[in-house]
Design brief:
The complex is a heterotrimer of chains A (343), B (278) and C (280). Chain B is 76% helix and 0% strand. Chain B is mainly alpha-helical and 278 residues long. Chain B has one domain. The two termini of chain B are 39 Å apart. Chain C is 72% helix and 0% strand. Chain C has 12 helices and no strands. Chain C is globular and about 55 Å long. The chains are: A alpha/beta (343), B mainly alpha (278), C mainly alpha (280). Chains in contact: A-B, A-C, B-C.
Chain lengths: 343, 278, 280
């Protein structure tokens, strides 16, 4: 692979034409899933795409894995244009989508994986060697001869993940790989992913997730994506560092009268306020320009007869970065943008 | 794992893909024993019903053999309709289609694998029905030329599965509406292709139109080659039928290739063919 | 609760059966398909008998085949819902956790097929009367017998469908035509297209044990009285006797359906089959 970047996009956009509503024929609708995306991912990087559901992550992965053509701009994977040079791209990549099964229920785990290895031209002896090695690594060795229809969702997902790694791709795309996995299994997958990239420094891994901890723990760099746009792109540390000068406080409060976030937004030095009603009390989360602004916040609370139950200062997380960029938490953004549908 | 994995390309990859995709067809079916009941025993009963209709109306003996052979061949037609034509649609719904498109292999090889696997699995069923039916109803055969019979069977199957490969892309584009088409193509084809009576019973043009379905001429030629009075009731001469079957094979397989390419391009442009729409 | 499960399922079945295609295709489906099925028998009959449609055997075959369409339609309707919900929509598990009665839900799903099936049966019979001299005279039809028989048949087929649905819970998806395959198999033993007397003696008892045999005979007799002579071994029985036999068999079918479905349902849940997909 001679290309400078493993993945490179410029001005990449994708618009879906939605099927016309029969009752409103004069209103052809379009959904802009991705717009003006510029990314450069180095070889050997574990790159994360972080964003809420419907942000455009899957669309981006589909374009990069040659399954979807871009509406604007271009994208290259391993130095080849994903739209014009699909034949050159495909041998070098693989993809795993969380929450989707692959293969056939009546085949065993080992048979399913072997079948896919054949579509990549792997020789059976070698394929079985890798399959057995990976099955052992994922704790699936004892289920190798179980029909995949008899596996639990989590184990089927592990099989799907093995399918992606098995072919030794130069660029691997993992679309929400831990979707539907329990905490322990997710941790196993994350540690495997990290180990794989460490042991294979010339390979590249692009991972989409809407889980902060996944992006934070795993990725060398993260692009935060929302409503089809990349809002920021840097290492998790650097992204959080921008918030380091600011102070982040969590306050658990009990209010006699109603409490509104707007009451604090006007205070000088308050960057963002988030109010979450909890069982019997509320949680306020403040991003303040500096620590000293806290006294003004506390004063306002006192004036409104609000009792402070607990006050903690904490380190910024990627969630805070998202809130600063978008103005809402990912969960809220998903609710607002729920008319987007997983593109 | 850093050592590069050796991978075949070109025709080796093509063959590997065919065998890889054929594997679940052959193994998967045998794995659930219930197919013996549903795909051999029940069709056998169905064939018997037509045999008894002929007996009830006092038909000559050779018609019994025609029904047994035609009944066995319905297995292939069912396989084409429900496990070839609608298969890409199922692959889409289960998420496999995207993985197939993304793989470095050719979709044509995947389809050929499906066809080969389906053919091998179905041939077992058809053979079982022929054997059981022949024994149960004491069918008499008079084999003319074994090699011609083999050639006719091979050409008919190649043309038939080529047709199935072609319609699988069409059905995918039509999405669930294809269900109707598959359903629609059952009884009318049993009728037009002469599964239960010689196609010569129709007038020439009806029989000629029905010959677009490769099983029509395949069945007619095979009946001519294995039954004593087959040649008398044949539609065209076996040699002409062989030539037409060859033509059909070429047309269907090349159309399958063209349509598959079109389907893939459309999938990439529109982005909806690789998505499950439940 | 029971009524609502049934009504909702019937509505859902109708939506699934009819919302994805245009009326034209739908009509073609309900006309061309059944008429072709009938035409196979008509061609077979006419090739051998040189088109002698006046023999009572012809209306026997024609009407038996026409009404037999209900068997495939209802049995497929009830059992196909299992495969469709489990492997395609993947909603069977949600139906299981919902407070509905699964058997009623399944039977409800078949209502749409029953309605479209009725259309096919009607068209086939009309075609036979108009073009093939099937001797139905509306003034001579025994309507009461016809309606009672038809209703009893619907109950019978729904129960048989439920038995098959139970078995389907334990089966893989071999094809999309399970109900039709079973219907095709039973065709042989139900005297639909030939009198049971044609069967070898050792197979006949199976035919007489099949409730569909009596049901079809009642329907044929209600429409064309003279057809009874085409079925020698039943011709001595009166309509009342046939009805009594059918009623008894329906009770038996109900017992079998309940036991089978419960057992299969229990097994399917034991083995975790409710949410599996078995495509291959």
């Amino acid at each position: 692979m001679s290309a400078e970047y493993s993945i490179e996009t410029e001005g990449l956009g994708r618009t879906y034409r939605l099927r016309e509503n029969k009752k409103k024929k004069d209103q052809p609708r379009e959904l802009v899933a991705l717009t003006g995306v510029n990314l450069q991912v180095q070889r050997g990087e574990l790159f994360g795409l972080l964003g809420p559901n419907g942000a455009g992550k899957t669309t981006l992965i589909k374009i990069l894995t040659t399954l979807l053509g871009p509406s604007t701009g271009w994208a290259k994977v391993a130095g080849y244009d994903v739209h014009r040079e699909t034949v050159k791209v495909r041998p070098l990549i693989n993809m795993v989508s969380g929450g989707e099964s692959s293969g056939y229920g009546l085949l065993t785990v080992r048979e399913n994986l072997w079948m896919f290895s054949q579509f990549y031209g792997m020789q059976s002896v070698e394929a079985y060697k890798y399959i057995d090695q990976l099955l052992a690594e994922f704790g699936l060795a004892d289920r190798a001869n179980t029909k995949s229809s008899d596996l639990s969702t989590g184990l089927r997902q592990k099989m799907n993940i093995i399918r992606g790694f098995m072919t030794g791709p130069e660029v691997l795309f993992l679309d929400e790989p831990t979707l539907g996995l329990d905490v322990g299994a997710s941790r196993d997958v994350r540690s495997f992913v990290r180990r794989w990239i460490n042991e294979n420094p010339r390979r590249t891994l692009l991972l989409t997730t809407h889980t902060m901890v996944e992006a934070d723990e795993l990725c060398d760099r993260v692009a935060i994506i929302n409503r089809g746009r990349v809002l920021a792109c840097d290492t998790p540390a650097a992204l959080k560092h921008e918030l380091q000068q600011e102070a982040i406080f969590n306050l658990d409060v009990s209010a006699q009268n109603g409490l509104e976030a707007a009451a604090f937004e006007a205070l000088p030095g308050v960057r963002k306020v988030q109010l979450t009603p909890l069982d019997g009390h509320s949680q306020l989360q403040f991003i303040l320009a500096e620590e000293s602004v806290l006294s003004a916040v506390v004063n306002t609370l006192t004036q409104r007869d609000v009792t402070i139950l607990n006050l903690t200062k904490r380190e910024p997380t990627l969630e805070d970065v998202f809130v600063t960029l978008v103005g809402r938490s990912m969960a809220e953004e998903e609710k607002v943008g729920s008319n987007g549908n997983g593109h | 794992m850093e050592t590069a994995i050796r991978k075949n390309t070109g025709w080796r990859l093509f063959i590997q893909t065919i065998l890889g995709r054929a594997y679940p067809r052959v193994v998967g079916m045998a794995r659930e024993k219930s197919w013996l009941f549903f795909e051999i025993f029940l069709p056998m009963l169905s064939v018997s019903a037509y045999v008894f209709v002929y007996r009830a109306i006092g038909a000559p003996k050779e018609y019994i053999g025609f029904v047994v052979m035609g009944g066995a061949m319905t297995a292939f037609w069912m396989n084409i309709l429900w496990s070839m034509s609608s298969q890409l649609y199922w692959e889409k719904e289960t998420g496999n289609l995207a993985l197939y498109i993304m793989a470095p292999t050719q979709l044509m090889a995947i389809l050929l694998g499906m066809a080969l696997g389906g053919l091998v699995a179905t041939a077992q069923r058809a053979l079982a029905i022929i054997l059981l039916g022949s024994l149960a109803f004491k069918v008499e055969y008079a084999l003319g030329s074994f090699w011609q019979l083999l050639l006719v069977f091979f050409l008919a199957m190649a043309a038939l599965y080529g047709m199935g490969m072609m319609t699988s892309s069409l059905f995918l584009l039509l999405s669930r509406e294809a269900w109707h088409l598959a359903n629609l193509a059952q009884e009318p084809i049993y009728l037009a292709s002469g599964f239960y009576f010689p196609i010569k019973s129709f007038n020439f043009w009806v029989a000629a139109a029905a010959s677009i379905i490769p099983l029509t001429l395949g069945l007619d030629a095979m009946r001519q080659l294995v039954f004593p009075s087959g040649a008398l009731l044949g539609f065209l001469s076996v040699k002409v039928e062989i030539a037409i079957l060859f033509g059909l094979m070429v047309v269907f397989i090349s159309s399958a290739r063209l349509l598959l390419g079109k389907m893939e391009r459309l999938a990439i442009r529109e982005g909806r063919l690789t998505e499950s729409r439940r | 609760m029971n009524l609502r499960s049934f009504r909702t399922a019937a509505w859902l079945g109708w939506k699934i059966e009819s919302n994805w295609t245009d009326p034209f295709l739908f009509a073609v489906y309900s006309i061309v398909k059944p008429l072709s099925g009938a035409a196979i028998l008509v061609v077979m009959y006419s090739v051998i008998t040189n088109g002698n449609f006046t023999d009572p055997l012809f209306p026997y075959i024609y009407l038996g085949n026409a009404f037999y369409m209900y068997v495939g339609a209802v049995m497929t309707g009830v059992s196909w819902a299992i495969i469709d919900d489990r492997e395609h929509y993947r909603t069977l598990k949600y139906m299981y956790v919902a407070p509905i009665r699964i058997p009623l839900y399944l039977i409800g799903r078949a209502v749409a097929r029953f309605l479209t099936g009725s259309f096919s049966v009607f068209i086939t019979i009309v075609f036979g009367v108009l073009f093939l001299h099937v001797p139905i005279n509306l003034a001579e039809v025994n309507w009461l017998l016809f309606i009672i028989s038809l209703l009893m048949g619907v109950v019978l087929l729904a129960l048989m469908g439920l038995t098959l649905a139970g078995v389907t819970l334990l089966l893989a998806r071999h094809g999309d035509y399970l109900g039709d395959a079973v219907a095709g198999g039973l065709y042989l033993f139900s005297g639909a297209v030939f009198p049971l007397d044609v069967l070898p003696a050792w197979l006949r008892p199976l035919g007489y044990a099949m409730p569909i045999t009596y049901w079809l005979e009642l329907l044929r007799r209600s429409l064309v009285g003279s057809v009874a002579q085409a079925f020698p071994s039943l011709s001595a029985m009166s309509n009342g006797q046939l009805l009594a036999i059918l009623a008894g068999m329906i009770v038996l079918a109900a017992v079998i359906a309940v036991i089978t479905f419960r057992w299969c349902d229990y097994q399917a849940r034991e083995r975790g089959y409710i949410d599996r997909t078995t495509n291959y």
